[in-house]
């Protein structure tokens, strides 16, 4: 099953794979982003209670979902790096951390901008908001820890362990609105029942979620390429590549 | 004999299970402290197994549905009082200030304030809670029979608060 993945553990193959994928992913991401956001922000009907303010959902929900999605991807890569000692997985985990941190920051900031007009407050220490803030700190912790050691290997290992352990926070974020009384409302689409959002608003939202996901993959390709070149700079194939230009 | 890879795998899984268990136990122990607010029935009947009731004078948050027809406004000031309900008991909230746009009868709200007597709270802050349902006004009218009136026009429709 993983046969097609094995060659990609080799840095040189992975570098060329990323270079091949990047332009397609980036083009798709920009296209979907433009489609989802313009449709969602300008052409969907207003909400029956919240009027036009609800439109921030088209930024808030995709970034919040992908802040958790990126974290799972980072944790899986870190787990692979720790157990099977695949160095490309290690670089991928560290490449994902800043992307996820920015998604988390977008989710928190758009949430605050939404909370002020609707709830009446920028911030409240309820379980959902607090656990999402902890997710941001986890990302920042992973980034800081990876650079905190003079030996890059040790730093990467410590950061990977933190990334894997932090996975515990993901179910807490997702179920916080069910386990406790929160100001934040329950899930609209990430549940097994029918989405409690009208189809005219749901479609652009799903497109935006897909766009954020593809954008994450595109940025991962870009950052992973850089990481490979930095880490393999003394290898002959990198020198040959640099000589070409 | 375990290989080095299997040793690493079991070590990581062990760390994850132990930490997961510790966090789960911690959250379970803190269960009531993580709740943002009391519901009216928790306030009246007591919270948890021990039925702990908050004491008069305690600062707390209360969350519930605004009872239809219970909002009373003072014509000369911003003072307002309303009743909150969840499954049975009713709690009265008094507030002096501007209510959020989403505040309506039948709407969920969270109020922070001081307990004046076992069922009355003097709120210093009122936040509106909204549910996870999003739909255009026409759909809401067809589905729920809710006629959406923007807050700016509401005053005229109701004869002015």
From TrEMBL, chain A:
UniProt cross-references to InterPro entries, sorted A to Z: Cyt_c_assembly, Cyt_c_biogenesis_CcmC, Cyt_c_biogenesis_CcsA/CcmC
Localisation per UniProt entry: Cell inner membrane; Membrane
Pfam families on file: Cytochrom_C_asm
UniProt KW Protein biosynthesis keyword: no
Keywords: Cell inner membrane, Cell membrane, Cytochrome c-type biogenesis, Membrane, Transmembrane, Transmembrane helix, Transport
Membrane topology: Multi-pass membrane protein
Ranges annotated as spanning the membrane: 21-43, 63-84, 91-113, 133-149, 161-181, 201-222
Keyword Methyltransferase: no
Coiled-coil region: none
Record domain Cytochrome c assembly protein: where: 6-184
Family: Belongs to the CcmC/CycZ/HelC family.
Role of this protein: Required for the export of heme to the periplasm for the biogenesis of c-type cytochromes.
Protein's recorded name: Heme exporter protein C
Organism of derivation: Rheinheimera muenzenbergensis
């Amino acid at each position: 099953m993983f046969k097609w993945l094995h060659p990609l553990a080799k840095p040189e193959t992975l570098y060329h794979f990323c270079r091949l994928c990047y332009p397609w992913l980036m083009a798709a991401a920009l296209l979907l982003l433009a489609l989802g956001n313009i449709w969602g922000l300008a052409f969907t009907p207003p909400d029956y209670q919240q009027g036009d303010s609800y439109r921030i959902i088209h930024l808030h929900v995709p970034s919040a979902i992908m802040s958790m999605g990126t974290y799972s991807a980072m944790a899986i890569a870190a787990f692979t790096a720790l157990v099977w000692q695949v160095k490309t997985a290690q670089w991928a985990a560290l490449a994902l951390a800043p992307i996820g941190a920015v998604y988390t920051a977008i989710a928190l900031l758009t949430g605050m901008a939404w909370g002020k007009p609707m709830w009446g407050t920028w911030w409240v220490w309820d379980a959902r908001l607090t656990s999402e803030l902890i997710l941001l700190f986890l990302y920042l912790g992973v980034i800081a820890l990876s650079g905190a050691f003079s030996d890059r290997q040790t730093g990467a290992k410590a950061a990977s362990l933190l990334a894997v352990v932090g996975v515990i926070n993901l179910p807490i974020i997702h179920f916080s609105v069910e386990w406790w009384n929160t100001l934040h409302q329950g899930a609209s689409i990430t549940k097994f029942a029918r989405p409690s959002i009208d189809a005219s608003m749901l479609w652009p939202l799903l497109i935006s979620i897909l766009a954020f996901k593809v954008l994450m993959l595109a940025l991962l390709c870009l950052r992973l390429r850089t990481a490979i070149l930095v880490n393999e700079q003394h290898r002959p194939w990198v020198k040959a590549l640099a000589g070409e230009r | 004999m375990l290989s080095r890879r299997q040793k690493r795998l079991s070590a990581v899984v062990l760390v994850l299970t132990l930490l997961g268990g510790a966090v789960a136990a911690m959250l379970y122990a803190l269960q009531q402290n993580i709740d943002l607010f009391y519901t009216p029935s928790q306030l009246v009947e007591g919270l948890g197994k021990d039925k702990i009731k908050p004491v008069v004078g305690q600062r707390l948050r209360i969350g519930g549905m605004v009872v239809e027809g219970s909002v009373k406004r003072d014509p000369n000031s911003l003072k307002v009082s309303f009743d909150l309900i969840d499954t049975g008991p009713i709690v009265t909230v008094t507030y002096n200030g501007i209510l959020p746009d989403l505040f309506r009868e039948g709407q969920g709200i969270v109020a922070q304030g001081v307990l004046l007597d076992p069922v009355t709270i003097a709120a210093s802050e009122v936040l509106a809670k909204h549910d996870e349902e999003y739909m255009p006004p026409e759909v809401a009218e067809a589905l729920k029979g809710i006629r959406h009136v923007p807050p700016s026009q509401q005053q005229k429709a109701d004869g002015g608060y």
